[in-house]
MFS transporter
Amino acid sequence: MEATRQKLWTKDFLIVSLINFTITLIFYLLIVTIAAYAVEQFQASTSTAGLVSSIFIIGTLFGRLGTGRIIGDWGSKKTLFCGLLLFMLSTISYFIAGNLPLLMLNRLVQGIALGVASTATGTIIAQILPTERRGEGIGYYSLSAILATAIGPFIGILLTQLFEDYRMIFAVDSVLAIICFFMYFMVTVPFIPKKATEATVKAGFKVSNFIEMRALPIAFVALVIGFAYSGVMSFMTFYAKELDLVTAGSYFFIIYAVVILATRPFTGKLLDARGANIIIYPCLVIFAIGMYTFSSATTTIAFLIAAACIGVGYGNFNSVAQAIAIKVTPNERLGLATSTYFILYDLGLGVGPYFLGFFVPSKGYSTIFFSMIFVILLSIVLYYFLYGKYENLKQARIS
């Protein structure tokens, strides 16, 4: 019986990870194609096309904000059902979004659906993992999103090259969303007593009904780190063209994903055995080194070395920080912890490109990326005061 409880790679773990991979894949497939679609189909301006692309993230934030409370009331499996149903319907609705306002509305709704569904999958994963292996398990689970960030843009760009009609992209997305919805019926979620849940969510409007305060410190560090990384995600194409390293730019996220795949199994086990500090501090330093290399790159080799460093640093920080948010939270509030973490993390990713974009014309991409080194160094200080020093005290008491 004990051996069964220790099992990590269960049917439910694999299916929920696959669901998360698929919805994230659809998101990244569309994020690299929808702006061009808005320009070509509806003659949208560049700024409006950017809003068509980014309004999805706004929807995701709204979706995550209320999902922790909904999971507390309905349970994680019912919440996942609603999120996947809405995600499937909104994905199919691209075929009937016949004007720019409808397209933007559909993007917003799909973002809300992704926020609900991905928060539910993260909560279910936390519920089905053995407590003593959560760090390792969440590390593996987060690979589903990492792979999607590399494969999604590749498929999206490939489809635009193979087919002139964007409806083929919508058709592929729709098929994936339908498959994803029906995978839901294969998932089994452990029962959590209703009384335990009710005790954590009180009637009326209270911040604690929507935000898990214990997860807030590490989530704030994730916001700062997400802000530092956001420019890489949003301005990669422009920066690579400016440096005449377009080929290297196309391989950047592949190298990034491969490095994370290679290192994540070790960092997850190390987290469970030795705690977060032994991983977080080196990862943030390596992330800063990667950002310096990225900001000063002039060759393909330097560009890809930067991808590897950013993959080790930023990629592993994200999974470990998510695991921390789960570890410091009682089981009955895992939904709130997951939504709290991703609300702040997504906020950093969403606000970053908009804010940094103001400085690009006057400062240039290289200077912008170089300045992010100081943001990363600031995050090391924030991490120490918000979480790191408390883990040191806990380890000292244990020893």
In short: The chain has two domains: 1-190, 197-399. The chain is about 80% helix and 0% strand. Residues 41 and 99 are 9 Å apart (CA to CA).
